[in-house]
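Entry 12.
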Amino acid sequence: MMPRFKLEGIHTPIVTPMKPDGAFDLDGLADVVEHLVGSGVHGLISGGSTAENYAQTVEERLELARFIKERLNGRLPLFVGTGALRTPDSLALAAGAREIGADGILLGTPPYSVPTERENALNALAIDRAADLPIILYNYPGRMGVEMGTEFLDIVGRSRNVIGIKESSGDINRVHLLARDYPHIQMSCGMDDQALEFFAWGAQSWICAGSNFLPEEHVFMYETCVLNGDFAKGRRIMSAMMPLMRVLEQGGKFIQCVKHGVEMAGLRAGPMRPPLRGLNKDDKRELEQVVRALKRSIADIKAGN
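Predicted 3D structure (tokens):
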């Protein structure tokens, strides 16, 4: 049976450009949306952690989602993040996503409460009922404290709305488990330094914050591995990307790096909301050097060198 939504390509969890006072820079956001559409990404996700959802009210998150949906005007699918500490907030986000005509929702485990697998599954099904839209599950135990394990997947996977899972555990055994035991749930790469492995195991999409500022390079990696099946070239691309993955995944300054990357691309991202602060001069310089080298290397690979 075909899923309601085929999860293919590069899906960008879009940043939230901010003004110095912490207000939304909607003109800046419009420019980022246009840049991503023009660069060939395949979908957008609003209200993820990359968008600083934890520092926004439900109303603000829905305001952003509505704005992005209107700017896209049907050119790309939009999934709306529903992750929140409080279930009523997740339900409101899910219902709001349905009201604005979103294409689906990204559904994570509520952080901090550490639910059992059954509690987590029943919570997910309540959010599913509120949205009645295609769902990408979001497994990120490093942030949420618990994993979407087999008991959870067995219960939630029965819903026809559950089309995919963004797998961000970093555990390669999860990739094997999902590919072999849950083939009806489309697997999407959520751990950037494992994109090659995900694609080798049949994933056809990558939800990657780095595509906010390097969309064409991420699309090239997807096309090389998934559309062309050229894993020898894919290894070269991934090798060129690895220094960036190290900076993003292991630096502890993930959103700060992504926002500075967006500014480097000539767009406005602005500051973070507290508690986060921008990169210092040394961190900026390191990121700039890594991005320059990455762009050079991938341009060489594209040129056939």
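Annotation: Strands lie at 9-13, 43-46, 78-81, 104-108, 135-139, 162-167, 186-189, 205-207. The chain has a mean pLDDT of 97.
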